[in-house]
């Protein structure tokens, strides 16, 4: 589903010309399509049909309140990785009873807050964390519901920085140790086993690693059930990829077929933790060309969005399509599109064929809805971008552009 299209040579988000948004709120600005956000959720939800499942949107992909609010309004649950994300979900009126908490370094304070908030379950990532959760549960006079995040040792065949299911990864409990840990947990008074969890990586474009991982985890689930653990949930994590350039990730239907084929028979309710696949292609980053610059060996286009605004190219060598907001005719030349940040890695696109834009021309950095604003920083003391949500012919600012005062808000000179 794409909600970003040219109409009479002008790139639109739904029915709003992106140029109009840039004029009104300036650049750089993130723009999201409500139709895309809700559409992606509904398509995935429908793909799992009548099979018992709960979609827990992965908050870290895009944690803006307006985005969380949209998902909450559709009955989504949430996958959180910090106390801050817990607070955001509450602020957006998300359902705590549909919220799951992952991460290798939860503090006891974060656990206590989440337990008091009544989350669905904790995805525990180590033996010591399980003991800590037990202590938190006992202190509260309750049994904290948990699943172990197991590491199935499967190569997700994605970028090494976003692979999480290998033996060498910091995430999860080694697969072989899981049964013994559940047995230990049974003797604890502050926890109660409710599920099994895995998440092997992000931007998965093939079904084979998903199948391999889930086969192992479904087997474990069945084994634990047979041992009398009162499990209900099989959490399959997130990771479904999207098309940035020419990737061909499985469709939601194909993904659902793959998953359901492997897990049917377990009788488990599924938890899905999609992030990128719901929000990635629902957002763009608007940026304006500041300067063109001819170096001996290269042509540079300097734009006003930097790696502080969108770090994915610098951090993951990620590719983002760049579309001129006003369609350009002419011969493409190879350019490096770079940001203003004083780092050599602040390159939005390398050796990209583009019709050389005019100074002041606008570009939409496509597929920027996931891990864009949520990873933005103020490095180089650059206030973070504004965010806009489009719905049909209407649009509104859902986060104001930061001001200089915001840069030093908590400082004491
Ligand atoms: C990041 C993360 C997700 C979401 O991954 P996507 O690739 O954005 O779908 C899901 N679960 C866990 C535990 C994560 O850390």
UniProtKB/TrEMBL annotation:
Pyridoxal 5'-phosphate binds at residues 239, 273-276, 371. SUPFAM superfamilies: Alanine racemase C-terminal domain-like, PLP-binding barrel. Residues 30-369 form the Orn/DAP/Arg decarboxylase 2 C-terminal domain. Pathway: Amino-acid biosynthesis; L-lysine biosynthesis via DAP pathway; L-lysine from DL-2,6-diaminopimelate: step 1/1. Substrate binds at residues 276, 312, 316, 343, 371. InterPro entries: Ala_racemase/Decarboxylase_C, DAP_deCOOHase_LysA, De-COase2_C, De-COase2_N, Orn/DAP/Arg_de-COase, PLP-binding_barrel. It catalyses: meso-2,6-diaminopimelate + H(+) = L-lysine + CO2. This is Diaminopimelate decarboxylase. PANTHER family: DIAMINOPIMELATE DECARBOXYLASE (PTHR43727), GROUP IV DECARBOXYLASE (PTHR43727:SF2). The modification N6-(pyridoxal phosphate)lysine is found at residue 60. It is an enzyme of class 4 (lyase). Homodimer. It comes from the Bacteria. Residues 39-279 form the Orn/DAP/Arg decarboxylase 2 N-terminal domain. The keyword Lyase applies. Its EC number is 4.1.1.20. One of its GO terms (molecular function) is pyridoxal phosphate binding. Its cofactor is pyridoxal 5'-phosphate. Specifically catalyzes the decarboxylation of meso-diaminopimelate (meso-DAP) to L-lysine. The active site is at residue 342. Keywords: Amino-acid biosynthesis, Decarboxylase, Lyase, Lysine biosynthesis, Pyridoxal phosphate. It comes from Stigmatella aurantiaca (strain DW4/3-1). Belongs to the Orn/Lys/Arg decarboxylase class-II family. LysA subfamily. The keyword Cytoplasm does not apply. GO terms for biological process: lysine biosynthetic process via diaminopimelate.
């Amino acid at each position: 589903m794409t909600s970003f299209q040219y109409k009479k040579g002008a790139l639109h988000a739904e029915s709003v010309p992106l140029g109009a948004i840039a004029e009104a709120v300036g650049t750089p600005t993130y723009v999201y399509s409500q139709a895309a956000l809700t559409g992606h959720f509904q398509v995935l939800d429908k793909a799992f049909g009548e099979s018992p499942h709960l979609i827990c949107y992965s908050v870290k992909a895009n944690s803006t309140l307006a985005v969380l609010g949209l998902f909450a309004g559709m009955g989504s649950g949430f996958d959180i990785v910090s106390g801050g994300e817990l607070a955001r979900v509450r602020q957006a009126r998300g359902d705590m009873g549909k919220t799951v908490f992952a991460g290798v370094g939860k503090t006891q304070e974060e656990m206590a807050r989440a337990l008091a908030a009544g989350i669905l379950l904790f995805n525990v990532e180590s033996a010591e964390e399980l003991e800590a959760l037990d202590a938190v549960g006992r202190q509260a006079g309750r049994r904290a519901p948990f699943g172990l995040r197991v590491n199935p040792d499967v190569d997700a065949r994605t970028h090494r920085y976003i692979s999480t299911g290998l033996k060498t990864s910091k995430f999860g409990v080694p697969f072989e140790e899981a049964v013994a840990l559940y047995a230990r947990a049974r003797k604890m008074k502050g926890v109660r086993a409710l599920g099994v969890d895995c998440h092997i990586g992000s931007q998965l474009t093939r079904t084979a690693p998903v199948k391999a991982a889930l086969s192992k985890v479904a087997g474990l689930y069945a084994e634990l059930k047979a041992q009398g653990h009162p499990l209900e949930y099989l959490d399959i994590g997130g990771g479904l990829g999207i098309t940035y350039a020419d990737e061909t990730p499985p469709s939601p239907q194909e993904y659902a077929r793959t998953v359901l084929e492997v897990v049917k028979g377990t009788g488990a309710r599924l938890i899905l933790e999609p992030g990128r696949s719901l929000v990635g292609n629902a957002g763009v980053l608007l940026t304006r060309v500041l300067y063109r610059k001819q170096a001996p060996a290269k042509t540079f286009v300097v734009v006003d969005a930097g790696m502080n605004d969108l770090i994915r190219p610098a951090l993951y060598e990620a590719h983002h399509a760049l579309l001129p907001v006003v369609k350009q005719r002419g011969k493409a030349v190879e350019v490096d599109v770079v940001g203003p940040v004083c780092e050599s890695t602040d390159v939005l696109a390398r050796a990209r064929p583009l019709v050389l834009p005019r100074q002041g021309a606008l570009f939409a950095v496509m597929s920027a809805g996931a891990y864009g604003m949520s990873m933005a920083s103020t490095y180089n003391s650059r206030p973070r971008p504004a965010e806009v949500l489009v719905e049909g012919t209407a649009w509104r600012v859902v986060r104001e552009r930061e001001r200089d005062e915001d840069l030093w808000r908590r400082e004491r000179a």
